[in-house]
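Q: Could you write out the predicted structure for this multi-component system? I'm mainly interested in how the pieces pack against one another.
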Amino acid sequence: MSLAELWSRGLALAVDTVRVNSVALEVRQDVSLWHKQRRLGMYAVIAAGNVFLRLSRSHIRMFSSAKAWRDWELSTFALLHPSRAAEARGPRAVALEALPGERLDLLLTQGRLTTPMVEAAARELHRAHGLTTPNSSHPWSHGDAHLKNVLYDEAGQRAWLIDFETEHDTHLSADERHADDLLVFLLDLRGRATREQAVSLTAAFLHAYSESGVFRALQARLRPPRGLERVLWKSRSHQLPEAQLLEWLEHLRHELTRLEASSHRPLAT
Ligand SMILES: Nc1ncnc2c1ncn2[C@@H]1O[C@H](COP(=O)(O)OP(=O)(O)O)[C@@H](O)[C@H]1O
Ligand SMILES: [Mg+2]
């Protein structure tokens, strides 16, 4: 491995593993709250991370200002979950109501992730993508919609999105931003699951999301990544071997083409 490759792998790992915020559950009688706080001294880490995110064409960036992150986390939480409590705790922390459900990554690890759960995740992403970002006229997007940031609530038979720490580049179209959310989810799913599981869960996920403009943007994004983009995608798919990553991208392209064709097929009479 060349020095440059080693450096970029290390940076990708750091972006994935360094936690810029600390999180703790505050259990109260009436409601439980997740207390999330920007760690001190994170400015340089975020600046370096943002250089990598830009060079790897990630389409996202982290908020370097703690207050800007706090306001984004709070306004997004209120937009997506209007009936749930969310409040500022000083300039660099928030308290967010604990939402019901379990993380999709844990459900998958325990062998409990099912088709209805990923369909619920797709429906929730679709609903959220239809909302308007506060103080703007743009459709909202997540920026880091991997399995750890989606909860599935069995009792309510629905999914919930959490963790609003990144924003998409503002020059992207809404379809490109929404396609990026789907890509992040599907790379993570493939990296964590067997190919067989990933194939059937992805078919259900895309079918439940169904949005032709977003699917076209995703098709356009699914070419083999190069340079630092490859490092990022490998990191997002949990270091899936190169050949399997390329095969997965090809599978996604076929799946999107198949869905597009079946949506135009005339109904049988
Ligand atoms: N509102 C919430 N409801 C339920 N669980 C939450 C909530 N906020 C955070 N968590 C839990 O805390 C973990 C970390 O929070 P998150 O906002 O994803 O920050 P990060 O991934 O950046 O550390 C989540 O994976 C989830 O388990
Ligand atoms: Mg998270």
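A: Regarding packing and overall arrangement: The two ends are 59 Å apart (CA to CA).
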